[in-house]
TrEMBL record:
Name of the protein described by the UniProt record: N-acetyltransferase domain-containing protein
Matching PROSITE patterns: GNAT
Domain of life: Bacteria
Residue intervals of the N-acetyltransferase domain: 1-144
CDD domains in alphabetical order: NAT_SF
Any matching Pfam family: Acetyltransf_7
GO molecular function: acyltransferase activity, transferring groups other than amino-acyl groups
């Protein structure tokens, strides 16, 4: 992690308004998501905040997991003004050493544009993609 920044998995440090603002206004995957849905998602995940050492939150990620066999990495973001400084790598490094995320049989994610970053951590196309199925409601948060 670059000097002056830290990652914490303490859920009490997460700035829900900051995370909601990014997800609902900036992200391509959760645009329009209601704040109460974000709060529920945080309460039911292992959350990771990226902070300046002065406490200001500058990034976020969460992992949905049973803490035994499976995990899904979601909602990963770094403040756009700080991208390209190694902070995303530092955030992912902290996630992959978290004690509750060791020895999992399957760790998955979906990404539109960060394949090369995640490949460095061992992610790739799933084996037997013909076995994967999904219900996708891509526009669930968009109002008509």
């Amino acid at each position: 992690m670059p000097q002056g920044y830290e990652v914490s998995s303490d859920p009490t440090r997460i700035d829900i308004d900051y995370v909601h603002r990014y997800l609902s206004e900036v992200s391509y995957w959760a645009h329009g998501i209601p704040r109460d849905v974000v709060a529920r998602s945080l309460a039911n995940s292992i959350v990771f905040g990226l902070y300046k050492t002065d406490g200001a939150q500058l990034g976020f990620a969460r992992v949905i997991t049973d803490r035994a066999t499976f995990a899904w990495l979601a909602d990963v973001f770094i403040d756009p003004a700080l991208q390209g400084k190694g902070l995303g790598k530092g955030l992912l490094d902290a996630i992959f050493v978290h004690p509750d995320l060791q020895g999992l049989r399957r760790f998955m994610l979906a990404t539109q544009d960060a394949h090369s970053l995640y490949q460095k951590y061992g992610f790739g196309p799933p084996p037997n993609p013909d076995r994967l199925m999904a219900i996708v409601k891509a526009d669930i948060y968009r109002q008509p």
